[in-house]
Amino acid sequence: MQINPIEEKQVSRTVDQALHGVPLSLRGLSKHYGGRTVLDAIDLEIAPGEFVAVVGRSGCGKSTLLRAIAGLERPDGGQLRIGSGDSRPEVRMMFQDARLLPWKTVLQNVALGLADGEERARAALASVGLAERAGDWPAVLSGGQRQRVALARALVHEPQLLLLDEPLGALDALTRIEMQQLIETLWTRRGFTAVLVTHDVQEAVMLADRILLIQEGRLALDQEVALVRPRARGSADFGSLEQKVLDRVLDI
Amino acid sequence: MAASSPVSAPVAPRARPLARLSAALAPWALPILLVVVWQAAAHTGLLSSRILPEPWAVATAFWNLALSGELWTHLKVSLWRAIAGFAVGAGLGLLLGLLNGSSRRAATLLDTTLQMIRNIPALALIPLVILWFGIDEAAKLFLLSIGVFFPMYLNTFHGIRSVDAGLIEMARSYGLSGWGLYRDVILPGALPSILVGVRFSLGLVWVLLIVAETISAQAGIGYMTMNAREFLQTDVVLVGVLLYALLGKAADWSARGLERHFLRWNPAYQ
User: Fold this and answer.
1) Confidence class of residue B15 from pLDDT cuts 50, 70 and 90?
2) Measured between CB atoms, does B194 come within 8 Å of chain A?
C-alpha cells in the first residue's frame, strides 16, 4: 500500500486541530529591557496538546516569555510561530489577577468578545461549577471564584493555546489544589496546548508533561514528567522529581 | 461529665418598621429642630421680625406666592436657566474631557489653555461678560456654562486617564478595540469620576445662578428675592433662599440616584 506523505501530513494536522491543540515554536527569542537581557535567544518546540510548565525565580523572565508568546510584549529578536500556519489559532491568557470587568455580571464577563454567545457562556460557567452565579457582580465573589470565572472566560473561546501567568498565586492552598484539578480536567477533556508559568514547583510537577526552567534568560532545564495521571502528591516518584527540580531552581 | 448546653446562635434583630422610619427621618432631624427653635425664638420676641421673620410668616408668603402664580413663573425661569447652563457647560466639559482624556495629542494641544481659563474666577468675569453679552439671557448662560464646565472637564479627564490598565490589556487580548473597548471598558471605568463631576456641577449651577440672576434680571428667583429686598419683604427673601436650598437638594438627590443606578455593581455605592 502506498502512503502519500502529503495526505498523511494533512490528516495528522486535521487530527491535531480536532484535538484543539496547536504547536508552538520559538527560535532565538530575545528580549531586552534597558540594558538588561531578560530573554537570551530561547529555542523551544512545544507539541500540540502538550502541557508545559515554566518555573524559575522571580524576575527570571518567565512572565516575559509568556507575554511575548501572547503578543503583549514585542520580542527584540528571534521568531515565534504558533500553529502550523493554516488559520489564525485561538490564543487565550489567564492573568495572576482575574481581571474581570466589575461593571458587568459574571455571565457578561464570560461572554466578553463573543458575538451572541450567551448559551456558550452559560455552558462554560457550568463547566467551572459556577452556573448559579451567572447574574452576580464580580465584587461579591471570592478570589478563587473570580479566577474560575476568568478560566471560563478563556475557555469559552475554545482556545487552541492557553497561556497561564501564575493564575493561582493569589489563592489559598486549598483553593489552589481545587483549581489545579479543574484545570487538569478541562485540559484533558479539550486537549488544548497549555503553557503555565508558576513559581510553585509542586504545581508544575502536578500538572505538566514538561517542566522548563529559566535562569539568566536561558533555558536551564527541560525536564519531562513521566508520571501517570492522575498524579499522587505523596508518591515517592512525585517527591523525588519535585526535589530534583527544586534543587535546580535554587541552584543547589 | 457535664453536658455542655447548646450555644444559641445570635439572631439578627429584624428591623422594626419604627426603626426604619426613624432612620429615614434622621437626616431631617437637625433642620426640623432648627425650625422649631427659630419659631420659638421669633414667637417669644427674642428675634425681631425685621431681622428674621418667623417660619410661619415665611410659609404664608410661600403660600401666597404660589396661589398668585408668581412663584411658578419665577421658578420656571430659574429652572430653565439652570438646565440650559448645565446642559451647555457640563455637556462641553464631558466632551472635552473625553477627548483630552483619550487622545494624548488633543490633550497636548488643549489642556494648558483650558487650565489657564479655569483659574480665572467666573465671578470676576462679570464686567467683561456684561460688555460682551449685555445683560440679557446670553450673559447669564455664558456665566453658568463656564462655571459648570470645569468640574465636569477635570473629573471626566481624570476618570478616563485612571481606568485600570490591566483591564484594558485584558480586553485587548480578548479582541476588543476601538468603539467596543471604549464602550465596555473605558467609559464604565471612568463613570465613577464622571458622576462626581456631575454631582459637583449640579451643585455649582445653583450657586452661580444666584449671582447670574443679580445681573439685572426681569424674572427668576434671584429677581424675586432682590425685588423683595428693595421692598423690605424679608419673608419673601427667605422664600427665595429656601427655594434655592430645596432645588439644590433636589439636584443632589437626582445625582445620587444616577450614581445608585450606574454604579450599582460597586459595593461602595450600595
Assistant:
1) low
2) no
Q: Which CA distances in Å does A248 have to A208, A212, A220, A223?
A: 17, 11, 9, 11
Kindly list the distances between the CA atom of residue A84 and the CA atoms of A13, A81, A116, A190, B224, in Å, as whole numbers in the listed order: 8, 8, 29, 19, 80
**Which of A214, A96, A99 is closest to A163 using CA atoms?**
A96
Digit-coded pLDDT (tens) for A177-225: 999 999 999 999 999 999 999 999 999 999 999 999 999 889 999 999 9
Locate A30 and state its grid cell: 530575545
- At the topology level, CATH places domain B54-269 in MetI-like fold (1.10.3720)
Residues B136-159 have pLDDT tens digits of: 888 888 888 988 999 999 999 999
Q: Are B89 and B148 in contact (CB under 8 A)?
A: yes
Tell me whether B270 touches chain A (CB under 8 Å): no
H helix or E strand, kind and range, residue A28: strand A24-33
Residues of chain B contacting A103 with CB distance shorter than 8 Å? 188-189, 191, 265-266
Q: Give Cα separations from B178 to B113, B122, B184, B185, B186 (angstroms).
A: 28, 37, 10, 11, 10
Residue A84 has pLDDT above 90, yes or no: no
Distance CA A178, CA A9 (A): 39
Distance CA B245, CA B221 (A): 12
pLDDT-based confidence at residue A13 (cuts at 50, 70, 90): low
| The A24-33 sheet, strands edge to edge | A36-46, A24-33, A77-82
Task: Tell whether A158 lies on the interface with B, counting CB pairs under 8 A.
Answer: no
- Summarised one tens digit per residue, pLDDT across range A48-60 is 999 999 999 988 8
Q: Which residues of B touch A93 (CB under 8 A)?
A: 173
pLDDT in tens, A117-131: 899 999 999 999 999
Counting other chains too, the contacts that B182-191 makes at CB distance below 8 Å and 24 or more residues apart are: B182/B102, B184/A101, B184/A104, B184/A112, B185/A101, B186/B102, B186/B160, B188/A101, B188/A103, B189/A103, B189/B159, B189/B162, B189/B163, B189/B164, B190/B101, B190/B156, B190/B159, B190/B160, B190/B162, B190/B163, B191/A103, B191/B159, B191/B262, B191/B263
The yes or no reply on domain A29-90+159-252 and CATH 2.60.40.10 is no
H/E run at residue B230: helix B221-230
Residue A252: pLDDT band with limits 50, 70, 90: low
| pLDDT tens column, B179-218 | 999 999 999 999 999 999 999 999 889 888 888 887 777 8
Nearest CA in chain A to B267: A139
Query: Which residue from B157, B257, B249 is spatially nearest to B203, judged by alpha carbons?
Result: B249
The backbone torsions φ and ψ at residue B103, rounded to the nearest 5 degrees and listed phi first, read -115, 115
ipTM attached to this prediction: 0.84
Phi-psi region of A216 (alpha: psi -120 to 50; beta: other; left: phi over 0): left
Nearest residue on chain B to A112, judged by CA atoms? B174
